[in-house]
Amino acid sequence: MSHGKIIAGVIAPHPPHLVYAENPPQNEPTAECGWETLRWGYERLRASLSRFDYDTLVVFSPHWQTYVGTHFLGVPHLKSLSVDPIFPNLFRYQYDLSVDVPLSEAICAAGADAGLQTKMMRNPDFRVDYGTIVACHMTQPEWDKPIVGISSHRLTHYFSADVMQTHMMKLGQATRQAIEASGKRVVLLASHSLSHRHFTTEGEVPEDMSKEHITHHGQYLWDMKMIQLMKEGRTKEIIDLIPDFTEQAISETDSGALTWLLSALDYPQRPATVHGYGTVIGTGNAIVEWNMEETSP
Amino acid sequence: MSERILAGYVLPGLPHPLLCPEKNAGYQRLADAFGRVGDEIREQKPDLILLYSTMWPSVIGHQIQSRPEPEWIHVDELFHDLGSIPYKFRIDSAFANAYCEASQQRGLAVRTVNYHGFPIDTGSVVALKLINPNNEIPAVITSSNVYADRSETVVFGKAAVDALDSQNKTAVAIVISTLSNRVHQTFIDEADDHIHSQKDEEWNQKLLELFEKGRLEDVAQLSRQVHREARVHKVNNFKSMWWLSTVMGAHNRYRGDVMAYEPVAGTGSAIVGIQPADHAARDLEFDEGSPESFAGDRNVLASLDASAGLSSQTLDPGSGEGEQ
Known about the structure:
The complex is a heterodimer of chains A (297) and B (324). By secondary structure, chain A is of the alpha/beta class. Chain A is built from 9 helices and 10 strands. Chain A has helices spanning 16-22, 36-49, 101-113, 130-139, 155-158, 161-182, 217-231, 235-248, 257-264, and strands spanning 5-11, 56-66, 70-73, 77-83, 92-98, 118-121, 147-153, 185-190, 273-280, 283-291. In chain A, the strands form 3 sheets. Chain A has a 6-stranded mixed beta sheet, sandwiched between helices. A two-stranded parallel ribbon of chain A has the order 3-6. The longest helix of chain A has 22 residues, at 161-182. Chain A is globular and about 50 Å long. The two termini of chain A are 30 Å apart. Chain B has a single domain (5-295), classed as LigB-like (Protocatechuate 4,5-dioxygenase, Chain B), CATH 3.40.830.10. Chain B is built from 9 helices and 10 strands. A 6-stranded mixed beta sheet of chain B has the order 7-2-8-1-10-9, sandwiched between helices. A two-stranded parallel ribbon of chain B has the order 3-6. In chain B, helix 3 (93-105) crosses helix 5 (150-167) and helix 5 (150-167) packs parallel to helix 9. Chain B is globular and about 50 Å long. The relative contact order of chain B is 0.19. Classes of the chains: A alpha/beta (297), B alpha/beta (324).
């Protein structure tokens, strides 16, 4: 078997608003428009990824929340209706997806070998969370690639961001080792926002962009700081800053998704491509790609 | 005491008593106690069961389930290996809409949810399956707003009573919550379940003592400290007790009944009944306000001008004249 490889790692934010504004046939609510800077960013991401063949999307979602260990989708085919618990008015999505169970099991086992608590999810009635679905839909709306779904072990809330990082760095390393051993070419998706303080009210027309902005300037400053580090390839500094970023910008990096991603990519020093940045109901969201197939500058 | 609320209950939400009571004698005792709660509720004949679930987080204010007959096969995101839970519930849509309207009149951001497939949380599903298996009494489920603190939660509780008044209905009020909520950090054999730590156990015992003496408002007043000491900080406070004490009446004139207390995956899972009584366990003064309406977030960081009267929030520390 050939040597497997991570061909790209992506920060793929999952506000359901983005799918809502795309009006795909799977989603029942329809929108006039909205959040174009992010949706155009996803267009650029799709164009970038389309240059390379790959086998599987591996997605880490903050909305599959597990307080005991990291869990992995382990059912070959999952089909159901996903209704967003926070924005049910925007996201009622019929999904029909395939899971790369062998790769899922391999990452699960590699995580366990690294000393982490891991578990496969085998219940066929299980409903896939919207963080997984939105990130995958926006990255590959054809759904023609199998996925590996990884839960967010809620270590930041249970212990601290530092403890979370210790575990997620191990999980990232285990993910990379399992992918390399699998012989597959894989894209990683860290499904999360940057700053994550929401508005607590919603306009009558959710896609009214005259109402959309960052909740607070402090969040914006933090988002720009982190994005600048990404653009400069200073990923180990990002790891150092994640605990402060998580606390001060109420960032969704609390999930461990970004730590996992950077660890799996072995802390790339190449500049990331920022495909887009925008706010969704006050939160800061960036679509960022580290493409490992491109020659480093 | 609101005469609209016939009784209150605190019920835990993890699925073990429903899905695997045979795996641990404590789970079975919890399941039996859920059954007792159901019997008590049917004897009291309320018009509805009103649940506030700490396992249903919301962001855009509070949400209220209003779909008349939600139906699904539920799987818990953490304990998916314990099995699936098919359910079909009977919801009092008229009350849900009235509660939403009453909340909005008090300044809150609240909306109903009436969508096929909306994910009802594990705690609400478990509780309704065990206490109301035949849907004899309609229910209404409300979320816990992650951004709400005491003021908003108290006002949300008052709006529940408003809605009961406007509909001329009675209810039992239920909070879905464990006491301590720390789960074990390794996968355990259910037969070996135990409370996560001695510290959690001590706080649970303190809470049970207060509940048993009917000191509901004292529990509510301790909310912040309990949250710091015995709760994983998923949200900003143990606010469900603010809601319960508000809808029932913010005092200690109750009779408590601790029907069960057992570890479930390390959490302190208690089933507690709270009934009105003639005399208060203790006659204390409570020093927190009881707001009637919610005026929104003050957003002190973004509006320094608006907080000019508070010297700690301004760029000008003030002269200090006249300060005590």
